[in-house]
Fold this protein.
Amino acid sequence: MNAKPRALLILDVLSALLLAAATYLALIYAPLEAVMGAVQRVFYFHVASAWIGMLGFLAAGVAGIAYLRTQNLRWDIVEVAAVEISLVFFFIAIVLGSIWARPVWNTWWTWDPRLTTAAITELIYIAYLMLRQGIEDPNRRARFGAVYTLVGAVSVPITFMAIRLFRTIHPVVIGSQSAEAQGGFNMTADMKVAFFFALFAFTVIFADLLWNRIRLGHLAQEVEQRKLKVMQ
Amino acid sequence: MNGLFLLQPPPDTSAYMIAGYAIFFTVLVIYLLSLFLRWQNLRRDLSILEDLEDESKR
């Protein structure tokens, strides 16, 4: 396996800088929200993490389609990489949401449509990684994974639309929200800067992590192939 | 009465904010560490397999 490409090294550094800037904007630059206080600042990373989660799950579905069309195992590596990174960020989004909910809703968790669909999506993809472990043949594993992520991707728009279609206490920051929503607020111009910058920064971080994770996948594939060769 | 409400300072929810960001960075560091360790382990496996292949060729 070759040394890390220069472009990837630059992307690593850029991602770290963007994360630092996003943290500064969220914690210092954005004004203190009058009703919720400091906990509202969790919102910037909560939404950005959820965005990365959904983006990755959709990307995995696209990689699944690409694998089914081409039968090229490279797409399987992309698919696993996208799912793994998204699982981490979606988990963060759920935990941050729970932390935000404690002082605002007075509960860590409630079986609201958004929270429920988000938890189901996370569990669907945890099951994906677990089930893959049980299939030894790489081609069968890739075919199973491709179909699974394609079906699993359906949970993403359902989760996204849950707060727009159902009666829910989860606020909708952009767009109209349910009358039952609690904890909603109007973003000031400075808050919007922190919010959209976090979305941008996390998208770059996702691309960086994806590239790194794909390289790891290629290395794992090489080791697997050599193991088979040595055993023969 | 409404005026008095507006003068109230925001509630102190900074502990939740700190917890949120602490968890975010902890999970991120653990994931980055897992990527690094898996890479190191695979590199080691690859080098062992290359040695085994060389030995079998001899």
Q: What stands out?
A: Chain A has a mean pLDDT of 92. Chain A touches chain B through 38 residues (CB under 8 Å).
